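Q: How do we represent a protein-ligand complex in a form that can be generated token by token?
A: Start from the inputs.
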Amino acid sequence: MTVFIPKKVYLTIIAAAVRFANQRIPKDDWLEVSGVFIGKNDGEDVIITAVYPIMHQELDKDAVIDQYKWSNEDYEALSIIDDEAFSRNEFTVGWWHTHPGFKVMMSHIDIRTTLSYQQNNPLAISLVFNPVRLIRQLEMPDKKGDPEIQLENDPGFKIFRLDDVNQGIKASYHDAEYKIEGYDSIEQLIKLSQKFIIDITNFFPKDNIFDTYEKFVKQKINQLNALLIGTEEYLMTLVRKGESSRVPEVLENQNRDIRKYVAETFIKIENIKEFMDYLEYKERETVIPQVNLILSEWDDTISKLNDKLKEIAKKF
Ligand SMILES: [Zn+2]
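Then emit the structure tokens for the protein with zinc ion bound:
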């Protein structure tokens, strides 16, 4: 039996995990996140079609691992997701959570959670992801002081399934085979994922998401305005120095630089839009419209760019 994981599903798990456990956050404040998988079974295989981040742990320095509670809101989200899936002849095929900075395995709490999934669906799976394992290609030791284990081409997670549900919380478990789809090779997967983690660390914060994007858009607009003003000043200097013949050439070069800047910013804006797919389910309704509003300021600016460039050209 094999678990099939689409690229987008894998990226969602990485993004949701890294958002709450990355180099910009002190390690003591790293939080676990969890969610569910939607999909279907094909014989013994599990075909994952979608993944949903549901919640993150609250910061509690005294908490032991996996001590998090789903709120009523989270259970509501789960039932909406399940209903939507049902309308497509799909269902919840398992759950996932993160062990930020510690070993990929199942705790007693994880076994209990997995048991509840497997009691409903014997083929249900449990995925545990540690972003540090992916970044450093190391497995953390069982206990402090033991050596770290070097890995090679490891996606940072394992998928588990209980051996015998009838054993209850005493059930042992095994690794399940999986395949991540959408990459040319495992080497490419590792390389792209490590780069993706940097983007998420810098641009998909757990807090102050609006401030971050507002600042970004404002800075990009200011920079664009500075480029336009700079162009005009440059051209004025040329005229003053009696070098008007160079105006068309300079104007063309400046135009090209501005277009390049706009294209680069467009990619960043598209990234932010993509990151909205990695929000927790309960955040979507409030966060996405607000972020779209913030990003639309850039679109408004760009829609006036051609006129502005024409205006400058007309002056010379
Ligand atoms: Zn766990």
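Residues 57 and 63 are 10 Å apart (CA to CA). The beta strands are 2-5, 33-42, 45-56, 91-98, 125-129, 138-139, 149-150, 157-162, 173-175, 177-180.
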